[in-house]
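Q: What would this complex look like in 3D?
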Amino acid sequence: METDIAWQKELERRARIYEDIEAGGRFEGVMTTLDYAGMTLLTLALVVGFWIWGA
Amino acid sequence: MTDHAFNAGLGAAAAERQEAARNRDAAERGDAPLLPSERLWGFWEFTYANSALAIATWAFLIGGAIGLFVGPKEGIAAIVIGNIVGVVLTALATTPLSGRYGIEQFVALRSQFGYNGSRVVYVLAVVVLTMGWLAVLAMMFGRSIDGLAALSAGEAANPTGIKMVIAAVGAILVTWFIVAKGPTSIKFFNMVVSPALVILMIVMLYLILQNRSFAELLAMPALAPPFEDDTLNFIIAVEVNLAAGFSWWPYIGNLARLTKNERTAFWPNILGIFGAAALGEIVGLLAAVALGESDPTIWMTKIAGPMIGIIALLFVAFANMTSMANILYTSIVGLRQVGTASVRAISWGAILFLFCLIPLGLVIFYPQMYDGFFIFLVWTSALNSALAGIGIADYFFLRGQKLDMRSLHGPQENGPYHFCAGFNPIGLAALAVGFVVYVMIFNPQTLASIPAFKYLTASVPSCLAAGGVHYVLTRLFARGRGWGLYP
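A: Here is my prediction, written as structure tokens for the whole assembly.
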């Protein structure tokens, strides 16, 4: 029972840390539009390029 | 008195450190989100870790299977196209949320399927996939041993004979024994096997190119194309590779939670998983077509004489055991995480053995599964592609990339992820729709397809349909019922 309460407190602490980070917009290394655009372009380039080359 | 207070202070500090270590261990197991300060992997560490996961003997198997449908040029194109699309969609569905919150993948899944629904998904996606791969890899081990014995004795191999079955059963039992002993030995094998497999691939590629130029290899025909229509054969090859890409869905989210942030959780998959798997498959494809045999345990004996054949087969047998130990360990850790109290009460060794029973049965009663393993792989994509679509729709478009750590980890019975008796009927319906769309477009068992398959594949429409249904039904029904804490 005591362990349960301690664990709930620990979960609460961890959740609060994430809520603080979120509220302050302090997430590091967030994926930006640039990342998503880069990922889309890379995928399209590989799909189209290899389709033309191989199919 | 001062000494007493000092000792008491030291004792309290030691107890605090112990508790912090216990909490961190519990968070690593997935019971709580890992904090940014607790996460260890940067870009290159994660790239190495997921390359090690992707460089496995199954890459040779998949590459060899591609050689059945198309020649090397079309095969390389299919490998790149299928894997990049599969890996990118899978990574999008699982890694940004793990990288942002350090959350265990199946705990996060409560937000999409409910806390009981996530258990169902675990059984469907992880348990079935792992049991199938355990059986296939054990049979590959058995065939390696059978080939080895035949090569040493100068006899013909019998890949479905009793020697293969005995060796495959032995491989599963030894894997059970290794994993029952704990993860330390598995980590050691990983450090040795992954770099050695890269060396093996390079040596194989060198040996293949000794006999034929790259241009000659590219011009070679497929081993056994199932249809006269070349475009259809090519799209089936793309579909098998999409399935290979989507098959990382159960694993990469939980690796990504050990990375420091979203970017380091996402991008290494492109280098590690996509790059390493594609390299291994291309080697498997070229060898299969050049040597006229899709089974790696046979083409390895032909590639450069008995001596190198024996070394390669021994190594493949060893590497298979490592892959088996990896997937068995990961699945059982997850099973205990999502399992009910009665599942958690079963001892580690006993639950491992129970898990091995179905793979043992497959090895003994259905050894033909090995030759049609790609059928099993493609079946898993009917599920994994739909799961990826639901994951992307839910996290990016419905929740605006925000998860509630408190509700996800707190008591579930009366929480927002209770949905309907712990199941989110919307998520599960979307999963069923994705599965049905897949099978209606392309039947993995018979390879029968409708004309649209040649232009759309089956995994991509399944992913879109499941994501679309989940999005629309959630917007229409979930918020009004107060389900799922949607904004």
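A: To summarize the key features: Chain A has one domain: 2-54. Chain A is about 80% helix and 0% strand.
Q: Very helpful, thank you.
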